[in-house]
Every structure is written in structure tokens, then in C-alpha cells.
Amino acid sequence: MKRIGLMQVICVSVFLMLVGCSSAEQEENTVAHAEGTGASTTVEKGAKNEDSKEQEKKILNIGVQYSPSSLDTHKGYSGWHTSTYGITETLFKVGDDFSLEPLLAESGSADGLVWTILLKDNVQFSNGDPLVADMVVRNIMRVAAENPRFAYLADFTYEVVDDKTFTIASEIPFPTMLNTLSSCEMGMLHLDKITDFDNGIIATGPFVVESFESQEKTTLLRNENYWDGDVVLHKAVFYRIPDPDTLLMAMQNGEIDCYNGVNAAAMEIFSADPAAYNLVTVPATRLQMYFLNQERLNDKVRAAINLTVNAEDIVSYLGGTVSATAGPFSASSAYGKVHKPSVDTEAAITLLEEDGYVRNSGGYFEKDGKVLEVNIAYYPGRSLDVLATIMQEQLKHIGIQSVLTSEEKPDSTYIATRDFDIALYSMNADLSGDPAYFITNTLKDGAYYDVAGFDNADCEALITKLTSEMDTAKRAELANQIIQITIDDNAFGYVAIFNKSTVLSSGVSGFAETSPFDFYGIDAKTDKE
């Protein structure tokens, strides 16, 4: 076990050894947590009964690789953590099938340019105060003021109709309003009663903050005033353990009960012992892809490349941490129904020959005395270094020579300069159960990631329709048409979607293990038998 990882969890280990003690050992002694040390202490008999009662409570210990520096849900990406921790909730949430579901809201509907949101009757904060429409509107306005990614929310007009109803009006159609309200940064906070937004928020979720140690540990207690029924767990503790090897060790030792982000090596270990561990893997929302520069590569060369890159080889090498994909979205979503040609290296070679290329003595294609060489730009994160190396070998097999260019910061290098033939990239393609984010940021003319010369009038017209289409089914249909055009045009290569892999000890359930989204975690039904 790595030395640094050991020091990070040594405090965790001592306290959590209680989980692995036999009942006989618990009657004789317990291990007390000593802050900053690994010391064990024998508890006097006078405290034994109290500790035994504590052992009867359902306490879940969770390992996480990342933790926030602040609990202010509305700032930065802190909302991803407070949602995972079960502290905050949003008006709507995204289901396992990528569809929207009401949560704090009863319903949301649009009439032209005006959305009407109706809240559920019984929602209250953890201190017992009700959630009313005025508070919701003030939360939305605070998100707009505190989080640059949601600054556009200040452009809408809000009106409180009554305690349970409010409206949002826009100057142009905004079909993704409910998706925006499902973003975890939109968690509802009691703005009038919170005195320390960084360390002690008051929200509506099934858990409340007992203590918060910035970027280290968060201890939660059940919300005794939870509006949506009884909370099963008494307590939950999230420990930051950034090192994958240490996470594995902590899980094996019984020091934690679950975690997600399981790597390939740990998957093999957990899969080999199904009696002790439940390993759940689902395709998530982060995409591995590449751009094909149309200003440097003609149609036939791009087609040959796409017929050669074999996503299954990459999936196999990465050991189940990714799933091959035809498009940028999960095939489980309504807007992920696209197809791409199967790998066919013979067809790829034929295309190059039709384009006037011939093999040289070294086995590479050349034309007019110039070898067909492509520059593959990548950055090492998100396993893109592996993808680059495998692509290089696959292209070599059909006679395309390639050079690899590694950059630490793609957005300020090859994405900004467009100096590439093939550009590898990874991005979260689906943030809230709608295809618009990826499409408008990548495919729309003039978009931030419109860097490879893709220009298709039919695609642009469909994107324009998508920006105003209010019907969810029609939006999915439009998205599928748009993505299919990019595949047929060989503008991109959609390689794989990262899996969300969660391991749970036997008897643990309800850690959002079937959700493709990373920002859901414990809830009122999370259990530890």
C-alpha cells in the first residue's frame, strides 16, 4: 500500500475496525478514534453499554476520491458532492433511464415562453421550515450570481404566484428548463437560516451535516425531519481516499462499505468474490472521442481511419472501465440511438488506394512521394494516452504512419490552435438527461469545440430546431439525426463511454449504483444490513 495513501486513511482505519470485530470482541473492548493518530484504547465498562448501542445503529462508511473544500452547493462543483452526500435535493432529478423525474417539484410545464413550476405540498427543510416558491426563486437567483456556468439564469423573469407555484419566462424558447433545474448545483438551501454556507448548510435532503473537514471527511446524521419518509441509515461518513490502491485496501479490510470509480485491477478482485462484494457497472456519461481535422484530411482518409479504429480493442485493454459506443450518448438513452460502420480494415485500405495512395517499401501508404502521416494530439488523462497508443498501432496495421503529440492542457494547446490531424478528447457529454449540451458546444457552427472544420448545412438546420423544440421525444429524434450526420461525414470518432463502477459490501444497497450519473449517492432508502 502506498505510503501517502496509508497516512491519509490511518485515522479512518482505527475507528472503522469496529466493523470487522466479532461480537465477542465488541463485548470486551472497542476501538476509539484518536484524531491524528492510530492509537487504540480500551473502553471502560461504564461506557460499554453506550458503545454497544452505537454499534446497533446503521452507519455507512464511504470512500471517495474527491471531496469539496466547501459545502456551498451553489458555487463551483460543490453541488455534486452535497447531492452525493444526500444533503441537498433539486426540483427534478434524472432517472437511471435518463428521463426527468419530479423530486421537490410536483410538476413543470411550459406554455409558450413561460414555464410554470408547482412544488410538492409537504417539502420542508431539515429544521422543519417549509420550502416555498419565493425561497426557490431566491435560490435560483443565487446560483446565477455565484456560479458563472449558470449566469444565464439571471436573464429570465421570475414570478411567485403563491407559496407552491412560480413561473419562469424567457424571451426565446428554453426547452431544457427542467433539465437545468435538475442540475445538482440547483440544490435548495435555506437561505434565511444558514450562517456558514461553507461548513454548515441547511437543506431538504435525508441527511444533515454533523461535521465537515474540508477535502478530508464529512460526517452526516439522518434528517429526523425528512419530508419524504423515514431515513434508514442513522449515520454516514464520507472519507476522502484519493489513491485507488488505498481504496481497495480499505474495502478489503472492511474499513469502508462502498465506493465508486473502481479501477480495472480492483474489479478483478471484487468480481472474484461475489459473496463478499457486489460490483455494479453501468455506462455513464463521460465520453472518449477524437476530432478528425477536415481541413487536413480528405473524406476518404477520414473514412479509412474510422473503419480502422477498433473500440473493442480499447475496451479490452482498459479492463472494463469503458464501454464501446457508436455515438456520444449512452445507448440506453432515447437520444443515443445511432449506428456506425463496423471495423473493416480491408475496406479502409481500398479507400486509400482509390484516393491514389500506394504502399512504399516500408509498408506505409504514400502519394506523390509523400508518406501519409497523421499527427495524433492527446493529453494523458482519462486513459487517452492508452487510446493514442492503440490507435497508432491500428493505423500502422493498414499503412498509415502516425506521430503522437502529448499536451498537458489541450484547451490551451491543440484545441485552441487547431494544430492536429486527429485530436483526442474526453468530456462529459450528458450533464442532465438532454443532448443539447454536447451538440451545441461541439457541433454548432462557431461553438467552443467547433475546431475541426465540420460544416454541414443540414446539421446546422437541425441544431436550430433542437434549440427550440419543446417535445422530449422530438428532441431525441433530432439529436439522433444530428449525431448520425457527424458519423456519416466521418467528422468525429466516438470511441467509448466511461463506465461508472461501484462496489458495495454484501448487505449494502442504495448508493445510486445503477445511476449513470456521478452526482447521486446516498438517499433515504440506502441500507446496510
**CATH class category label of the domain at 283-499:** Alpha Beta
Write out the CATH superfamily name of the domain at 283-499.
Answer: Dipeptide-binding Protein, Domain 3
Work out the number of β strands: 22
Low-pLDDT segments, ≥5 res: 1-50
Helix percentage range: 25-40%
Number of helices: 16
State the separation between the terminal residues, measured CA to CA. 29 Å
CATH architecture of the domain at 283-499: Roll
Shape field: globular
Signal peptide: 1-24
GO molecular function: peptide transmembrane transporter activity
Biased composition (Basic and acidic residues): 45-54
Region (Disordered): 31-54
Top keywords for this entry?
SBP_5_dom; Peptide/Ni-bd; 29% helix; single chain; alpha+beta; 529 residues; disordered N terminus; Dipeptide-binding Protein, domain 3; SBP_5
Explain the overall architecture.
The chain has helices spanning 3-16, 23-28, 48-56, 78-84, 133-146, 177-181, 244-252, 264-271, 299-308, 311-317, 345-354, 384-398, 414-417, 436-442, 457-466, 472-488; strands spanning 59-64, 92-94, 100-102, 105-111, 114-119, 157-162, 165-169, 207-213, 217-222, 235-240, 258-260, 277-292, 322-324, 358-359, 365-367, 370-371, 373-378, 401-406, 422-428, 492-505, 508-509, 527-528. It has 529 residues and is an alpha+beta fold. It has a domain at 283-499: Dipeptide-binding Protein, domain 3 (Roll). Strands 11, 12, 13, 17, 18, 19 and 20 form a 7-stranded mixed sheet that branches. Strands 1-10-9-8 form a 4-stranded mixed sheet, covered by helices on one side. Strands 4-5-7-6 form a 4-stranded antiparallel sheet, with helices on one face. A hairpin with a 2-residue loop joins strand 4 and strand 5 (114-119). Helix 9 (299-308) packs antiparallel against helix 11 and helix 15 runs antiparallel to helix 16. The protein is globular. Residues 1-50 have low confidence and may be disordered.
